Amino acid sequence: MKKLLLLPLLLLLTKTQAQTPMEIHQRAILVDTHNDILSNELITKLDIGQLQTTGNFDLVRAKKGGLDAQVFSIWCGEDYGKGTAFAYANREIDSLYALIARYPDKITLVRNSKELEKAVKEKKMAALIGVEGGHMIEDRMDYIDSLAKRGMRYLTLTWNNSTSWASSARDETHRRSSLAHVGLTDFGKQVVHHLNDLGVTIDLSHPGEQTFYDVLATTNKPVIASHSCAYALNPAYRNLKDDQLKALAKNGGVVFVNFYSGFVDSTYSKKAGRFLRAHKAEMDSLEKIYHDHDLANIRLNVIYKTESDQIRPPLSELIHQIDYIVKLIGVDHVGIGSDFDGAESYPLGMDDVTDYPKITAELLKLNYTEKDIDKILGGNFIRVLKANTGK
To answer: H-helix or E-strand containing 202?
Structure first.
């Protein structure tokens, strides 16, 4: 009788043990909190609903990589000021709406965790909107309201450039003494409160350290860092220091690890500088074609792929970033924020959205449980989204 009672348990254990990394990956809900494809799409005019041979993302490859939910970054650079930044943000949102209208069976806009989970059940990609840069609200609360109505689920309070109400990591690091203010102003605190009231998550991936702590002292909701790495492993100005990571965890927030080689690998920046200097003429020509430095750099790295691959870090360094932060602040506070289509280089093996399963496979090698992996791939994001929206 005991053998008969144990048989179902043994069969269950055997079935669980037989699961492949890909099966575990496909079963989990995978959320990537940062992709810059929309700003590139406005330039290239490519239809990312169809399979593409350039860039890191399209809906076909995303399906293959098990990507269930994508937060699309709405971004423009600091050269867009008052009178242009908000309008450009809306152009990018329009392009996402158009994509959804063309492929309603493949992708749908979601605004909360319930809608996200419904989209997953219907086998559609859940599309969310993240606005990367507080300059796009142009110092107007009604612009926050407008963006929120259109689906904004997080606002990165600054990009590399500071706003009149919040200082950025780049500016706090490189020109702190010349800033009119450091951290949040009174208006900046009003922005935080308003975002809390609207259920829009606050993103601290680009703001400076003083702004970071001012936000944590002001917010009444969990925050995120949508695409950041650990400063202890690579002291890049935009990576988060250990004390920041601990404070973010205490807030109940999540840091979503960035795949960009320059944030993952402390040796990449110098090597990339030498690569650019060696191909300055080609880079200058590409900038004239695309009128965008980042997109030109991405294309340059594709043209000289064999050479550029030699300076990319190994995949193990990206996994080390994830593992380091998990060990520091716990598995409940780590996720995935690739920054795909927003940078010229990622670790070897992370070429596009089909490569996410490699992360699951590597975490299993480090003895992460399926429950841990579920949290990292998407569960932690869903928790914070629900905490901010209330559903």
So the answer is: strand 201-203
